[in-house]
Recover the amino acids of this structure.
């Protein structure tokens, strides 16, 4: 929802205090630059050059699954242990830790879904200079060079990726204060603004560099409010990964935001690779490129002269503590990288169908009466929605799991009212707990000793919405189990099965803490907050989602939205891009922000429609609805201080525009649902950059003002004020795209100018695809459950098309536990459209049927026959010659049946 | 796939109590029945195409305007008619047919969804008639009250206008008197002025000394006069007998006003009386007439002039106040006049809200704390056809990082004049509901109230 303007004072006061923020922008002074973060400054001072590390080849040990080898730092004689694994699915894992650390160093648990299965490594050759290992297929080798230590992954004669090639491996070993050879600032204590980090363990940071020859485009490492393609960081700050509650964040810079996923993708026309740096401490990522400074002319000159050095991107990761644990995902296709990463950290959770509908949120819907009247407003204006949301004011004194007795005296009555309309609600549950001896949750956490501790071992306390608050230690499995149990219907009073949860402020946000978060020397058991910071938010959502599943006896799918996240968070629900603003640039940035998240596993992403802070102009609001309707998580939200902005408050014309685009969203729910299922099964992103599907088309590599939904819909939202037209790039030489509104056909591999009005949202369907829709839009997704499908068959130039249809009950886990779903393949070839079963041993019955088939780019048949159960029956049809659209009228077969439609 | 009934037999209970059967396709209102002739080709109501009759309500949308599917959810823009016998007929979007939610009280929208709907039309009809009846009664009584209000306002207005006319007449006389006294004063001052010019400084000092002394003497005298019970203290009640001290000149000197004059003290002694004296000396009328023996003739002329000038100013103020009141838009028949200078309060769990029509709206925490201005009178801002249904109060106390507070007051007909609810739909934008007989419309004839079957 929100963050605090005045971190040094309790936020409840800041709303009325005189410390008014004069400018609308982040107060950068509240957040560290690399220079103000002692380890980053120290590490960054290290320049590329000869590495002091040497591999001790005589220590090499090779087992079936791993190779170990000691490294020595010749400057201080500290020994490190290198572990190399060849992982199934074309991945390599590189771990480096101290051979004999003074104390154990933190290794991040609970992110990998299992210990990654390995494949045998074999030594191809070995001499004094190094070792050559086989990585199995495709002539891939891993070369360990001894002096200086360096790793190269090669395929044939080509180097794919090198480690420590610039000599920036730096591993600060644990030491005693008395043994510190020189007294340097920030080693054993560090102060930022009024906060002192006591750093009892001294310097513990780690760093490693990676070189990517042939690579000019790198992506990922969210969350940053920046372009899709990552920029070089020379001369500026590195990209920072440190989950922070940033008040009124600014765009186009590398500052840290609410979540961190330390995964970077590297792409060129030949190959896509990924680097997953598994570390939960504060992390900085430097990117440099040998071509970044060159002009197009310079590059061309190199090319003509043939003297070009190969383009190369160099990346350097720096983390404050823990160990080096890197997964190198070798692709080679984009989809391979997605499945490789999914095999490590899991896939997007499969959400309940309703959560793909429209969500209406505001800080705050004031009381039950307000909720009721907003609900009625949707019906009065015939606009569908599935979820209405309650922010922090719903709870009694910000005591989560409770209801304000005056504003929400009868929560069950309210929830029942929504249930009668087949709609749902989300109420916020934040992880800061009001310190109040009259509050059950606080008392139980206290008595079970589940709070995070400060450096002196007492319960850590900080300021947040309720005032003085404690922070449950979500890193403890027992704590998470207890938290989950609080969602049981008999524990969470006033809750019902249509009440779901929103976890905000889980960075965690501490208004009076350093950088508005927790002190790094706070303690989670034996680990410092420093070690675990970036994973705290993941644990909150994990425990919440688990609680929701448990309350239903393991039958129902959870739905939990989180603001903070880490690698693996995709397994627990949806994320949103936090507290944006009602500005055109914020609308624009929602696209690269969600695309970046999709690339690293988090498909269920959205931005606050309308913008959280400030009041949007009507035009901006309409444009934001049009954009949001085509992004995975579709929720309007607004700050407490903004004027009301329910969709019907801007005059009948604008109400109609918003209604229209929300209806488009609902008609496409079968496609969205199928894509989420695919993401859940394979790790393929739902909202994708164009290059994912057109990896050889360099024109797509930097596009982030348009995107694909799955492979088959291309969306170019209008994000400019007063726009009269947009230029969309339609990829794919030899392919065609159909305007979904007019069915007009356009050729691929062109920049297409599209004139727009306020009602336009340019969307194209790929020729060669079949998209199922439910064109009977009703007031909520549940109301549409049994409705018939219309199939939109968009033919390729070769008169071919294929698609899928996925159906289940929309809310339970039975698809997984009992195989209760329908999954069909739809193929149009040789003038026949066929539905065949992709899961013959599945069982699910639907009453939905096929009411209509539209074939775009068709020619007029003389006759259309439905072949089903051995019988042939004629089907009525119409043909629109102007757009070449063939409409088959009411073929009527059950959506789960085998059938063929023959065009003669 | 679903199987649908093309025709539906509708059974009505008409007012005579005789059942009548009328056949027409499901979802079609009686008025449109002629367009749906069984076994004849059907032409979409927008005329766009003609289809065989068996395609009407066959759960596939053929007409762009949705008219071929009045009884199914097939058309995105269709509407379904429910007769709701016993209540009122209505149209619902056809997307609500068989969506599992009971929309029509006669349950006809959920004929194939498995939703368990009960026919509630009769109850709704009764309830509605009950509500309408009550409303009608309220309207009737309210309207009578309104007539009184209009009458009173008319009288009040005439009185005030008369008063203003009288006052303006008096004012004229006063103005003449002031002019006359000015001449007297100036003549009388002439010798003094000359002397003053000669001994300006000495004169000023002397004058000040005299004034101070006189003032002190006057004060002592006044104290003794005021201290009726001779207890050495002047109390609130003792001071209150001097109506001329009324600070707002409204004719009554209230206890609060006296307390104000006394600086909040319940009584004062001679030493503390000095500060009270500064507050009252200009208006204070001595209880015994005294000769100001030592008053120079110039001083006398000056005082006379000043007194009359003051009286003129006061009269001007009074005229202005009445004219201000008369200038307000109190409605087409001045029916809102009675709200002027009144205040109405509503206490919620946290706050006391106060509406002073044509003046301001405010909010005060129930358990202590300062008052917040939620807006001062702005304008009537109801819909075009009747702007007198909504009042707007603007430019209240500013919000942190937000706009100035404002309040919209919605007026509804009621016998009583009360604030019935307040809310804050958006931050710092308040909404108040207020009932008053002043907005009650002339009641329609009771016989015209709906009885549930107007369609037949």
């Amino acid at each position: 929802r929100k963050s605090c303007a005045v971190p040094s004072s309790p936020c409840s006061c800041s709303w009325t205090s005189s410390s008014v923020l004069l400018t609308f922008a982040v107060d950068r002074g509240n957040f560290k630059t690399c220079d103000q973060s002692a380890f980053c400054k120290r590490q960054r001072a290290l320049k590329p050059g000869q590495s002091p590390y040497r591999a001790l080849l005589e220590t090499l040990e090779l087992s079936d699954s791993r190779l170990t080898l000691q490294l020595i730092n010749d400057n201080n004689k500290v020994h490190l242990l290198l572990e190399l694994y060849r992982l199934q699915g074309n991945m390599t894992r590189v771990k480096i830790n101290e051979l004999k650390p003074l104390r154990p160093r933190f290794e991040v648990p609970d992110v990998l879904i299992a210990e990654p299965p390995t494949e045998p490594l074999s030594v191809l050759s070995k001499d004094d200079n190094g070792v050559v290992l086989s990585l199995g297929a495709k002539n891939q080798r891993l070369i360990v060079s001894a002096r200086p230590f360096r790793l190269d992954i090669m395929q044939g004669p080509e180097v794919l990726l090198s480690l420590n090639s610039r000599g920036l491996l730096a591993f600060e070993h644990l030491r005693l204060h008395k043994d510190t050879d020189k007294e340097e600032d920030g080693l054993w204590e560090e102060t930022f603004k009024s906060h002192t980090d006591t750093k009892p363990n001294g310097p513990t940071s780690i760093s490693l560099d990676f070189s990517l020859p042939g690579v000019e485009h790198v992506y990922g490492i969210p969350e940053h409010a920046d372009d899709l393609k990552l920029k070089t960081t020379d001369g500026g700050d590195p990209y920072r990964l440190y989950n922070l509650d940033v008040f009124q964040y600014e765009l186009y810079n590398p500052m840290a935001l609410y979540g961190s996923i330390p995964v970077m993708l590297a792409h060129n026309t030949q190959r896509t690779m990924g680097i997953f740096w598994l570390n939960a401490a504060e992390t900085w990522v430097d990117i440099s490129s040998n071509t970044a400074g060159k002009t197009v002319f310079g590059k061309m000159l190199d090319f003509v002269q043939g003297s070009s050095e190969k383009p190369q991107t160099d990346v350097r990761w720096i983390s404050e503590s823990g160990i080096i644990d890197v997964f190198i995902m070798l692709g080679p296709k984009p989809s391979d990288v997605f499945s490789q990463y999914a095999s490590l950290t899991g896939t997007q959770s499969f959400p309940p169908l309703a959560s793909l509908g429209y969500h209406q949120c505001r800080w705050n819907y004031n009381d039950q009466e307000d909720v009721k009247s907003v609900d009625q407003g949707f019906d009065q204006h015939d606009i569908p929605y599935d979820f209405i949301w309650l922010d922090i004011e719903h709870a009694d004194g910000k005591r989560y799991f409770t209801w304000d007795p005056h504003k929400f005296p009868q929560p069950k009555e309210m929830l029942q009212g929504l249930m009668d309309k087949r709609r749902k609600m989300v109420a916020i549950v934040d992880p800061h707990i009001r310190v109040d001896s009259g509050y059950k949750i606080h008392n139980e956490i206290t008595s079970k000793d589940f709070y995070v501790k400060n450096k002196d071992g007492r319960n850590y306390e900080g300021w947040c919405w309720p005032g003085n608050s404690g922070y449950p230690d979500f890193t403890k499995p027992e704590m998470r189990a207890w938290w989950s149990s609080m969602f049981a219907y008999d524990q969470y009073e006033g809750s019902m099965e249509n009440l779901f949860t929103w976890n905000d402020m889980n960075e965690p946000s501490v208004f009076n803490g350093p950088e508005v978060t927790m002190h790094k020397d706070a303690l989670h058991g034996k680990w410092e907050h420093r070690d675990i910071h970036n994973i705290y938010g993941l644990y909150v959502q994990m425990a919440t989602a688990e609680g929701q599943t448990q309350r239903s006896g393991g039958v129902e799918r959870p739905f939990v939205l989180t603001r903070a996240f880490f690698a693996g968070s995709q397994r627990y629900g949806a994320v949103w891009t936090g507290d944006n603003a009602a500005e055109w640039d914020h609308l624009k940035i929602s696209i690269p922000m969600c695309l970046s998240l999709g690339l690293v596993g988090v498909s269920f992403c959205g931005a606050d429609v309308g913008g959280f802070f400030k009041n949007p102009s009507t035009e901006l609001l309409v444009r934001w609805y049009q954009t949001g309707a085509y992004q995975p998580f579709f929720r309007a939200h607004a700050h407490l201080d903004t004027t009301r902005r329910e969709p019907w408050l801007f005059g009948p014309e604008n109400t109609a525009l918003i209604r229209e685009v929300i209806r488009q969203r609902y008609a496409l729910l079968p496609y969205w649902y199928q894509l989420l299922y695919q993401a859940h099964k394979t790790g393929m992103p739902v909202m994708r950059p164009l290059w994912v599907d057109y990896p050889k088309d360099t024109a797509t590599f930097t596009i982030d003002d348009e995107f694909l939904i799955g492979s088959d819909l291309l969306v170019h939202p209008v994000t400019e004020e007063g726009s009269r037209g947009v230029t969309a790039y339609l990829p794919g030489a030899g392919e065609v795209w159909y305007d979904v509104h007019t069915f007009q056909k356009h050729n691929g591999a062109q920049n297409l100018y599209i004139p727009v009005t306020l009602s336009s949202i340019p969307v194209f369907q790929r020729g060669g695809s079949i998209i199922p829709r439910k064109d009977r839009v009703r007031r909520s997704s549940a109301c549409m459950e049994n409705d018939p499908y219309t199939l939109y068959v968009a033919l390729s130039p070769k008169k071919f098309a294929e698609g899928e249809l996925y159906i289940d009950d929309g809310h339970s886990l039975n698809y997984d536990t009992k195989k209760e779903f329908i999954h069909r393949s739809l193929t149009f070839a040789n003038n026949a459209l066929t539905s065949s079963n992709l899961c013959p041993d599945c069982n699910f019955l639907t009453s939905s049927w096929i009411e209509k088939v539209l074939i775009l780019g068709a020619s007029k048949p003389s006759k259309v026959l439905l072949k089903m159960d051995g019988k042939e029956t004629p089907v009525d049809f119409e043909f629109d010659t102007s757009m070449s659209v063939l409409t088959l009228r009411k073929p009527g077969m059950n959506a789960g049946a085998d059938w063929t439609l023959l065009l003669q | 796939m679903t199987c649908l009934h093309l025709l539906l037999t509708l059974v009505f209970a008409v007012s005579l109590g005789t059942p009548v059967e009328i056949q027409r396709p499901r979802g079609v209102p009686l008025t449109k029945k002629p367009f749906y002739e069984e076994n004849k080709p059907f032409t979409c109501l927008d005329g766009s195409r003609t289809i065989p009759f068996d395609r009407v309500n066959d759960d596939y949308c053929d007409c762009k305007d949705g008219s071929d599917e009045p009884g199914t959810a097939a058309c995105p823009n269709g509407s379904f008619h429910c007769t709701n016998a016993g209540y009122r007929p209505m149209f619902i979007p056809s997307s609500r047919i068989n969506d599992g939610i009971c929309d029509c009280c006669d349950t006809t929208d959920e004929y194939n969804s498995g939703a368990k709907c009960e026919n509630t039309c009769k109850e709704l009809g009764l309830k509605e008639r009950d509500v309408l009846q009550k409303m009608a009664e309220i309207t009737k009584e309210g309207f009578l009250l309104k007539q009184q209000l209009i009458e009173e306002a008319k009288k009040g207005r005439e009185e005030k206008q008369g008063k203003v006319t009288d006052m303006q007449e008096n004012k004229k006389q006063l103005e003449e008197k002031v002019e006359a006294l000015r001449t007297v004063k100036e003549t009388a001052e002439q010798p003094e002025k000359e002397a003053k010019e000669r001994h300006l400084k000495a004169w000023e000092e002397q004058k000040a000394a005299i004034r101070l002394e006189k003032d002190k003497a006057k004060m002592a005298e006044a104290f003794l006069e005021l201290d009726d019970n001779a207890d050495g203290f002047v109390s609130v009640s003792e001071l209150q007998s001097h109506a001329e001290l009324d600070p707002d000149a409204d004719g009554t000197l209230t206890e609060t006003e006296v307390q104000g004059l006394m600086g909040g003290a319940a009584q004062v002694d001679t030493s503390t009386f000095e500060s009270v004296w500064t507050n009252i000396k200009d208006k204070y009328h001595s209880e015994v007439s005294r000769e100001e023996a030592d008053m120079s003739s110039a001083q006398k002329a000056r005082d006379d002039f000043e007194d009359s000038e003051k009286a003129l100013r006061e009269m001007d103020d009074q005229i202005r106040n009445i004219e201000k009141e008369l200038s307000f838009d109190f409605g087409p028949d001045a029916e809102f006049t009675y709200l002027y200078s009144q205040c109405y309060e509503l206490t919620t769990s946290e706050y006391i809200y106060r509406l002073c029509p044509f003046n301001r709206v405010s909010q005060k925490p129930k358990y202590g704390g300062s008052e917040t201005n939620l807006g001062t009178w702005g304008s009537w801002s109801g819909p075009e056809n009747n702007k007198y249904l909504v009042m707007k109060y603007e430019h209240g106390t500013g919000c942190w990082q937000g706009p100035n507070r404002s309040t919209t007051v919605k007026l509804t007909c009621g016998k009583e004049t009360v604030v019935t609810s307040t809310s804050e739909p958006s931050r710092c934008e308040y909404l108040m509901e207020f009932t008053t007989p002043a907005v009650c419309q002339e009641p329609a004839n009771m016989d015209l109230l709906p009885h549930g079957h107007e369609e037949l």
Summary: The CA atoms of residues 535 and 566 of chain A lie 6 Å apart.
